[in-house]
Amino acid sequence: MKALSPRVGRFTESVIRMMTQVCERHGGINLAQGFPDFDPPEVLREAAKRAIDSGYNQYSVTWGSPAFRRAIAAKYSRQWGIELDADRHVTVTCGATEAMIATLMALIEPGDEVIIFEPFYENYGPDTILSGATPKYVPLREPDYTFDRAELRAAFSPRTKAIIVNTPVNPVGRVFRREDLQAIADLATEFDTYVVTDEIYEHIVYRGLRHVPMATLPGMFERTITISGMSKTYSVTGWRIAYAISPESVSPAIRKVHDFLTVGAPAPLQEAGVVAMGLPDSYYEELARMYDEKRATMLGILTEAGFRCHDPEGAYYIMTDIGHFGFKDDTEFALWLAKEVGVAGVPGSSFYSRRDLGATKLRFAFPKKPETMERVAERLMTLRRRI
Ligand code: PLP
Questions:
Q1: pTM of whole model > 0.90?
Q2: Mean per-residue pLDDT of the chain
């Protein structure tokens, strides 16, 4: 047989989804993958059922139902003060996951480079490689997970086509400040590169901080592709509904790739999305408050169990240090914890290009019901006497 694509050999399978499988095999509690174990709001569930009963069961317009795109544009301008045209700027995709790869495939030519901050959400490296570019990694440095401006500048070159900016950052919860974004914007302008932002946690921000969309910085709309979606904000990770907001010069290319990748996102769920986009501001305030409470609870449980925790500013993960537990590395500890204690996290090395940088870390997701948290607490309390 002829050889398989060498591209695929340049990245590994998803460690997060591998941990989910290990967890299921051992009857563990899954704090590896970032999904809620509670229901989405009833109005959305009702809206989805109504859409199916009202005939929204066939393909919608490939780049998104007109009503949903208009609702996204209206929400975006209400919340972030940018006027969008639903026909020229908004493309609906099958999750932020598809929005990212469709965007990169639309932008990349052979020989291009894409800058990625690390620790990163594990899809960005494979997305970059699959679209034919070379990833260039820039560290977010502890303790605050900020970047060094000189280091970032050094990563830019004439071959840089895009930089991926995820804020709030999965896995460490850093919320980029306006000054951080301005520094990135200045370099993107100087080197004439696109900025692809993943803002899927835009509404999950703590400590009175506020998310700043890159596209709202002066002059940046024209070079920014903003990706966000319904998975995290409305607790519907299985619906696979998201969107890319792009300048008119870029949208047709993203739409073309999207069409040939997936044809379109689920039609009835886009109609339910219209209802989601119309929820009042109080919905988002309550969401952030609920997750802040869960953050505090999980931080308490992990600290009590002996983990050294990084308190996040946003998103719904806690990165911990496990070096003092005495295991060979993060993977050995993660597998042991899932099998012997029944709690699954994600080995920190999967968030770094240089795996040793994450070798003493483990990430836990906390979008979980209070009763799940209690079960996690009971199980983790046994840690101290086991090691
Ligand atoms: N982007 C980030 C930063 C994420 O953490 C996740 C999921 O965990 C995704 C994208 C995936 O989003 P979606 O479910 O819309 O594909």
A1: yes
A2: 96
